[in-house]
Amino acid sequence: MKIERIEVFQVQWEPEAKPATRSAFVRIHASDGLVGLGEASPMQGGRASLSMIEHEIAPALIGADPLDHAVIQDRLTHRLVKLGPEGALSGALAGIDIALWDLKGKFLGQPIYKLLGGAWQTSVPFYASIGHNSFGERTVDEVCRVVEQRMRDQPTAIKIRFDNDRTMLDRDIPGDIAKATAVRRMVGDDFPLAFDANNGLSFGGAMRVGRALEDLGYWWFEEPLQHYHVRELGALARKLDITVSAGEQSYSTAAVADLIDAGVPMVQPDIIKMGGITGMMRCAALCQAHGVELVPHQTQPTIGHLASLHVAAAQFQRTKPCELDDPSTRRHAIFKNAPKPVDGLFHLPTTPGLGIDLIEAEVARRRV
Ligand code: CA
């Protein structure tokens, strides 16, 4: 099997939305007529990653063997390092890696989780990730209404997320605590809840919120500090009893190792931002060796989500449900078999590769 052609495209979901919601997809055409699908991080529509694939990565891969995905990733990470290995380049290589694993599965006639060593479980629970723009501006009542709505999807847990202005810290700590308290009252004492500060707190602010979350029995406290304050994240994690997590803005296994070294007990790298399936399995080994929880971040509900599910299925001692950010079916429109939860669980497809296929006519309609 040889790579013949690499295609990149954005898909726009709501033409009227500002800013437009776009996904960044990769399609790798190989000999034998096999096609692999991948997804890159959609920040700013993923345009920077898709451009790197088109101009720098695709020309280097024509004629390559898709089964060499790890060699391809390490070679290109180092060859293109000056494009910036943290962000757009790692997202581009993640998209390529996922598409190569999809091809590998199709070539060998196996679902990806089998090629990762087999599944500990083929049905994976999820948590509803609740946030989006200016969640911090919502009233306590508005937050509760959104939580109420998402409970209908039968999640195992709920994470409330505060999309702060990252240039300002500690904007409304009493308001944050009031929302966390109201949600706890609403769902009852036993329902698992998490709180994501989206890097919006100072160390002292995070101590205050963290102690409140401990009293409220929250499960984890995500990204309390700026992501680049790695040492302080570790120090905070050591002081608080609640599990402090970070890592959705880590783009390499070395960056995840730095969080672990600092003392962060739960890391959250994202399959479409760093390393794809190859990178996540390396993180899984790193976390297993250090006794650290790997709970992948993943907010894209189709290709990225499925790639993440295959890893979750194969993950030894997975401790928490997978993330589901967007439960709407609008992004299912271009897929024949988009992943949908049934009774609170995602069931892994048993077809070769990722197990997701495009509807060409719908792709053509929404492609940008
Ligand atoms: Ca987060």
Question: What do these coordinates show?
Answer:
The structure is a single chain. The chain is α/β, with parallel strands linked by helices. It has helices at 47-61, 69-79, 88-108, 112-115, 140-151, 173-187, 203-215, 230-239, 253-262, 276-290, 303-314, 360-366, and strands at 3-12, 22-30, 35-40, 123-130, 157-161, 193-196, 220-222, 243-246, 266-267, 293-294, 322-324, 345-347. Helices cover 39% and strands 16% of the residues. The strands form 2 sheets. Strands 4, 5, 6, 7, 8, 9, 10, 11 and 12 form a 9-stranded mixed beta sheet that branches. Helix 5 links the parallel strand 4 and strand 5. Helix 3 packs across helix 10 (276-290) and helix 5 (140-151) runs parallel beside helix 6. The longest helix is centred in the N-terminal third of the chain and has 21 residues, at 88-108. It is globular. The mean pLDDT is 95. Calcium ion binds next to loops.
Structural class: alpha/beta
Q: Roughly how many Å apart are the termini?
A: 30 Å
Q: Uncertain runs with pLDDT below 50, 5 residues or more?
A: none
Q: Sheet bearing the most strands, described?
A: 9 strands, mixed
Q: Give the DSSP E fraction (strand runs of 2 or more residues).
A: 15-25%
Number of helices: 12
Radius of gyration (Å)? 20 Å
What can be said about this structure in brief?
This protein is α/β, with parallel strands linked by helices. The protein has helices at residues 47-61, 69-79, 88-108, 112-115, 140-151, 173-187, 203-215, 230-239, 253-262, 276-290, 303-314, 360-366; strands at 3-12, 22-30, 35-40, 123-130, 157-161, 193-196, 220-222, 243-246, 266-267, 293-294, 322-324, 345-347. Residues 196, 198, 222-223, 248, 297 line the site of calcium ion.
